[in-house]
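Quick one: structure for this chain?
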Amino acid sequence: MRHGDKQNNLGRKKAHREALLMNLACQIITHKRIVTTLAKAKALRKYVEPLITKTKKSASKEEISHNHRVVFSYLNDKAAVKELFTVVAPKIATRPGGYTRIIKLGIRPGDNAEKAMIELVDFNEIYGNSIASATEPAKKTRRSKTTTAAPKAAAAKAEEAPADEVATEATPEASAEEATEVSNDVSNDEAPKAE
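Got it. Here's what it folds into:
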């Protein structure tokens, strides 16, 4: 019976499974996104997220070097460890967890295995929020539970530009006159000089 056995063996012995997860972890750190089977992606998530968390916990020099050694014992790749501590760690500094995302891709035609893409969340600009919004959390009011950053920004822009300036800049006649003046200046500068 396998009561309480949550380890997914992935059809491999212990040494083979550890080597597989080590190689997958190095590849996801290096390339930020890989395509593999769904079962391997789920096992990799459990393997790599604690390693990424170790990059954040570094207060003293001794602790930094200790975390480097611990992560290196799991990865056995100097380039991947350097990439993790220099490139990945600053981007995930504000994130409390959940550093990876798994996206299902359908089935593989040869053996009908479920494919999935696993990626580091902060390195995908399409799905994730921008880094600026992640570093500056929006303040919430006490009563309405809504963010106050957007209305304040709109009010500040409205106060900075007076209404008269905005109205004169928006007229089509003014923009047409400016365009003809610029084109005349450019044509005069480009005309060849007679000697």
